[in-house]
UniProtKB/TrEMBL annotation:
GO terms for biological process: phosphorelay signal transduction system; regulation of DNA-templated transcription. The modification 4-aspartylphosphate is found at D52. It comes from Streptomyces griseoaurantiacus M045. Residues 144-215 form the HTH luxR-type domain. The keyword ATP-binding does not apply. This is Two-component system response-regulator.
Length: 219
């Protein structure tokens, strides 16, 4: 696994690099600014880019902007975003580009090495790793959402695979059904969750967030 790390804190940047190299992972470049991160990604075409949300010069959304741009240039790039705390607007902006090969973790997870490495590998393999606290704040409700109870067992199975970052064809292969059947299930999921095509947030992302939030509540 080839990795680029973009983090403006030199101690955390080098600490991450040492941790990953100790796990026999190939850190091909590190960067302290968004521009340097994009240059490194263009040059090395890594499997995964790990980016901090807040980077120079303004320490606001530079990391998210860089992540979105990196995915635009390299659609198959896996991206794992790290943040000191939940950035609701920025997280939503990133998620609207799709959930495949995408992770959004709070930095405190890095200290839990096994959790962090598991999230990194999951994202690199095409899945999704969204911090439970990020899900909670992106999808806060005053009561539990009963709309998920409307889903059939097969629809929940499809939604769970969507949450893993699988596309329709991969879901069809996993469930041994046709692409058309998966498409029909997903249309039904959107309808039962009251997700309209006019919604500003991508319906697939919104459905996955509801599923993840339900898992968090039950866990």
């Amino acid at each position: 696994m080839r990795i680029v790390i973009a983090e403006d804190d030199p101690l955390l940047r080098e600490g991450l690099a040492l941790l990953l190299r100790a796990e026999s992972l190939d850190v091909v470049a590190t960067a302290g600014t968004p521009d340097d991160a994009l240059k490194a990604i263009d040059e090395h075409t890594p499997d995964v880019a790990i980016l901090d949300v807040r980077m120079p010069p303004t320490h606001t959304d530079e990391g998210i902007v860089a992540a979105v741009e990196a995915r635009r240039r390299h659609p198959d790039l896996a991206v794992l975003v790290l943040s000191a705390y939940v950035e609701q607007t920025f997280a939503t902006e990133l998620l609207t580009g799709g959930v495949r090969k995408l992770g959004y973790l709070l930095k405190e997870r890095v200290g839990r090495v096994e959790e962090f490495l598991d999230a990194l590998r999951r994202v690199a393999e095409g899945g999704t790793a969204i911090d439970p606290e990020v899900v909670a704040q992106l999808f806060t409700r005053s009561r539990e959402d009963s709309r998920l109870e409307r889903l059939s067992p097969r629809e929940r199975e499809v939604l769970a695979l969507m949450a893993e970052g699988l596309g329709n064809t991969a879901i069809a292969e996993r469930l041994v059904v046709t692409d058309g059947a998966v498409h029909k299930h997903i249309r039904s999921i959107f309808a039962k969750l009251d997700l309209s095509p006019a919604d500003q947030v991508d319906r697939r992302v919104a459905a996955v967030l509801r599923y993840l939030d339900d898992v968090r509540r039950r866990g």
